[in-house]
Structure formats: C-alpha cells, structure tokens
Amino acid sequence: MRLASTATLVLATFTLGISWAASPAPVHKAIFKDGASSTGWIDFEYQDGKGIFVPVKINGHYTMALLVTGSPLSDIDKTFAASVGLHPGSGSTAIDGLQIQIGDLTLRDTTASAVDFAPLAEHMGHPLPFLLGDDAFNELAVDIDFAHHRIAFSDPDSQAKPNGAVEVPLIPVKDLHLVPVSIEGAPPAQFELGLGNAGDILVYQPYYESHKLLEGRRLSKRSAAGTGGFAIESVSTLNRAVFAGVTFVNMPAAFVPSNVAGTTSNIIAGDIGLPVLTHFRLILDYSHERLYAVPYADAARASFAKDRLGLNLTKGDAGFAVKFVAPNSPAQAAGFKVGDKITLIDGKSVQAWPEISFAGLKYGASGTNLTFTMQSGDIRRVKLADYF
User: String of b and e for 367-378 (b: at least 16 CB within 10 Å)?
Assistant: First the structure.
C-alpha cells in the first residue's frame, strides 16, 4: 500500500527479504446476505482524486473506509475506534472481531490495527476513520468503475471477462500483487498495484538505478507524506509508460530511494497508482491472480496533474505557512523559504480558500500568475511553469 505525496498521499513501508511465495490462503470471511453472489453497484466517494472512500458499517457503526491494496491488515483510527467503543486487547494495538458490512456483504471476524490517522487526515483534508486493505480483496472480485464512481464486490467464480477488457496477470509477492508496466520502452517490469497511491507513478531505487532513469532528466524534489511521516523524493517526467495495452506520455514520476520504499528487491520496480488506474474500469480478482482492465475511450489521451509551483503550504487561523520549497521551481525563484508566513493568496485569506481549490493551486496551467502577500506586507508574484 502506498498513500501519496504532498499533492497527493502515500508512504508505506514494506519488509525486506521479499520472496515469490504467495501468502497462505485466508480464513473464509466474506459472506453475502441471503445467498447473493454480489453487492451490486455501490456509489463511492472519490475525494479530490485522493482515494476511494466506500460507505461501510463497522460493528454496526456507519463510516467511510479508504480502500487500498497491499495492506494485509486493515487499520482503524484509534480515536474513531474509541468513540464507538472499540479498543485493542491488553498489550496490543490490534482490535479483533470486527464485522465490516459493505452493502449486502459482511467481512466477518476482521482484525484492524489501531493507529493515529489524524496527521494524514489533516494532510488529505478528509476524515480517515478506517483504512480497508486486502480483507476486501482476498476472497472477492472487486469491480471499480472510476468513471461512474461506483464499486461492486462479487463471488470471483461468478465474474466473467467484460467486453473490451485486457487481462493482466496479478503476480503475488509476499503481501503485494504486482502488474507489468513498461517504462521508456524497456521490457515490462513488475509494479505494485497501488489503489492507495494517489500520487505519481513511483519508481524504486533498484530499478531506476539499473536503468539509469535519472540521467539526462530535469529533476527536482518533493515532500511525500503518509502513515510513516514525510520523506523527500526526486521527481521528473517520464516520456512513455505502458500499462494494460495503453501508452501514457509525459507522466510525472517520483523516484523513491530504498530507505523510503522499504525494499531493495529487484523484483518490485515501483508502484502504479490512481492517476493511471483511473483511466480504466478495473476488476481485481486475487483468487485467480488476474486483473481485468477496460480502458475508457480517452485513456490514451490522458493528461496528468503536474506541480508547476513547487510550494507546499499548510493552513492556520492567520494564514499559510511554507513547509517545503522544491528545488529549481518557480517558488524557489521567487525567494520562498521554509518557515515563511503568507497572509493572502491572490488577495484571499485562508478562510476564503476552499480545500479543493487550495489543494489544486499548484496544478494550474503553465503561465498562470499567482500573487502572495507575505506576513511582512511584501508581495511576491509567481508564474507557474514546468520545472521538472
């Protein structure tokens, strides 16, 4: 699982010593009501492109769950858990015996780790009471229709290949499921399927070093945030990447060092996340180790959000604070430094900036002008431009 960057979400840590052995077969947990074989379509919330939030009941309490792959255990926010009377066992951070209801589907006797999601929820600008991991995928076919913001969970033996679908192998490696992706014309390599990655395609150090992907590119840095904290990663733009038969061009990418990715494996090349996956209807079927990917009509013409400002800001009651300035960016050229205080952006106070507009500020078109009023009263003007 990866959750992304400061424009996005993610940061997860994986154990070393990854092997090709698949995980043991899970205990049967998925039960449909009254003998049904599917939930049918359930609307999900696709919050500002940051994740798939599915309505669930946890031990009878309604909430929204962020759906991710690559997480063998689900996670529950400890404050939310306490508010509904759920507590870890003595000397443990795990809460056992959870009943997770999704429409007519119940995932019985599920275990979740109790964690503090408050910092990540603040960064996302969205409550994060529950993170639903591979419990949702191990025994089910999960059909995700991004175009219509709907999802269905079914008995995998009843799942037929949709018209127009490309069948992609899902290769199990420890707790992950990998899919083939070709980068810059190279033979396909195995990438994590990252429903929890709302950021750019991630390329891990063993792969980018062996393929010399950083050579001859315009590079910068970004601050990536997630459940493990913040880390600095290199960013650039890939000319070409191919997934499920579709060629994507001019794709922003993050190059993640091994100490951040948590793996030195030469098996896992990186993580392909939501910016690519949302151009398909996806049916994930772990039990048959396959993914059906149906490209939407405009998939080959996809464009990707790209930071053209290079400034990470947080909101406070009195204004904005600068937390990170990207090297070689328009923000750096304008003189911004970490710790700077801003009272107005384009003449508007912090209260006048809706969360969606604020989050999208850095992704404006090249040539867009922004005006920042500093706490000192100075004015700084920045013209958005590609800088990596």
Answer: eeebebbbeeee
pLDDT in tens, 51-83: 999 999 999 999 999 999 999 999 999 999 999
From the number of C-beta atoms within 10 Å of its C-beta (0-12, 13-18, 19+), residue 145 rates as: middle
Tokens of 44: 């999900």
Cβ–Cβ < 8 Å for 237, 388: yes
Taking residue 276's Cβ as centre, other Cβ atoms within 10 Å add up to 23
Q: What does the DSSP assignment read for 200-231?
A: SEEEEHHHHHHTTTTTTS--EEEEEEETTEEE
- Among 276, 1, 295, 288, which Cα is nearest to 154's? 288
User: What domains appear along the chain, each with residue ranges and CATH number?
Assistant: 24-158 (2.40.70.10), 166-276 (2.40.70.10), 311-383 (2.30.42.10)
Residue 114 burial by Cβ neighbours in a 10 Å radius (0-12, 13-18, 19+) = buried
Contact 136, 67 (CB under 8 A): yes
Looking at residue 121, its pLDDT comes to 86
DSSP 3-17: -EESSS-------SS
Q: Provide the pLDDT for residue 228.
A: 58
Instruction: Enter the pTM of the model.
Output: 0.87
* Nearest Cα residue to 231 out of 11, 386, 70: 11
Tens-digit pLDDT profile for residues 283-335: 999 999 999 999 999 999 999 999 999 999 999 999 999 999 999 999 999 99
Tokens of 177: 């499921």
**Element of type H or E holding 359:** helix 355-359
Nearest to 28 by CA among 146, 135, 161: 135
Name the more confident of 41 and 70.
41
Please tell me the predicted confidence (pLDDT) of residue 229.
63
Per the document, the length of the chain is 388
Dihedrals φ, ψ of 146, to 5°? Answer: -65, -35
Q: Please give the Cα distance from 274 to 375 (Å, whole number).
A: 37
Q: Which residues contact 330 (CB under 8 A, 6 or more apart)?
A: 308, 309, 310, 382, 383, 384, 385, 387
Pairing status of strand 189-194 against strand 176-183: antiparallel
Dihedral pair phi/psi, residue 207, rounded to 5°: -75, -50
Contact status, residue 55 vs residue 81, Cβ threshold 8 Å: no
User: Is the distance from CB of 387 to CB of 218 less than 8 angstroms?
Assistant: yes
